[in-house]
Amino acid sequence: MGAELKLGVKWxxxxxxxxxxxxxxxxxxxxxxxxxxxGVRPERQKLLNLKLKGKIPEDDMQLSSLSLxxxxxxxxxxxxxxxxxxxxxxxxxxxxxxxxxxIEDGEEVALECKDVYLAKIDKRIRDYNIKMLSQPRPGKKLxxxxxxxxxxxxxxxxQTGAELMRPYLHEFLASAYKDYDIVIWSATSxxxxxxxxxxxxxxSHQGYRILFYLDCLAMISVHxxxxxxxQVKPLGVIWGKFSQYTPxxxxxxxxxxxxxxxxxxxxxxxxxFRHAHxxxxxxxxxxxxxxxxxxxxxxxxxGTLNHRHWEQVVKERKERKRQxxxxxxxxxxxxxxx
Length: 338
Ligand code: MG
Known about the structure:
By secondary structure, the chain is α/β, with parallel strands linked by helices. It folds into 2 domains: 7-79, Roll (Ubiquitin-like (UB roll)), CATH 3.10.20.90; 107-311, HAD superfamily/HAD-like (Rossmann fold, 3-Layer(aba) Sandwich). It has 9 helices and 11 strands. It has helices at residues 27-38, 81-88, 115-127, 169-177, 190-199, 236-241, 276-279, 285-296, 310-328; strands spanning 7-11, 14-18, 46-47, 73-77, 141-145, 180-185, 212-214, 220-224, 228-232, 250-254, 267-269. A hairpin with a 3-residue loop joins strand 8 (220-224) and strand 9. The longest helix is centred in the last third of the chain and has 19 residues, at 310-328. It is globular and about 75 Å long. The termini are far apart. The structure holds magnesium ion. The site of magnesium ion has 7 residues, from loops.
């Protein structure tokens, strides 16, 4: 028997302790222990931060060779068999698996001005520490992005993070960066956000820089008559810390409308990116959203916009462009055919 090894596993935003492991145990025994806690079969598990000289350790490798510190938390990506069975069903018999419920359209009741929430936001402005990854640039607007199901399908299984990345993610961020400073705000923990952004190559990309990350601790809970207490992402936390960002120049993308309950006019609900393996080939949402950001980049006050109509705006721009090209005879679809 080797020395006892206390490890934990993080999966789907939940943490589990792993018992009865020793240094002499192998990677496959670790996977079995994870299976007992999570129900994810060993062959479905992808252990993100378990590395030996930069490589994924073989199943028969001893845990002692990985020099894990006590209390180390393995980050695991993997799906349950029943989730996979669901994902393989045809779309029409697919039940909508939503752990994060959403509110109905138009239910963003006027919470913005309630004193009790303003006090909570003030507390975040004072107490929440932001680690800057780059500096605000003069004259830029602000784009705030959610991660799960917005940029990344966090539920499907995959060998690499890239397989779960929403298509055109880097193109989208590079394009948005020209006019906007970019903040990532996820309802998970900072460690997990950093891990994911590294995995997707966002933190090291040459074409853009992220301003900072915000995690669940920057969120506040609010009470809604219909749903009780819910967690939301109040943009007031950012506006309070950085005077150059205001309701007039900030836009937030999230697949859950509830998250911008405090700032309904600054939110754009993006379609959720799920089932990466089947939808990777066809999902062009980020390309279209990049166009929208481009179109509104010159609008002085976002308060004059209704982001619900973003798709219409993109369509109209495309049509105008086509007409210009036709008139100028500069080519493009349909040019010269009339
Ligand atoms: Mg999300």
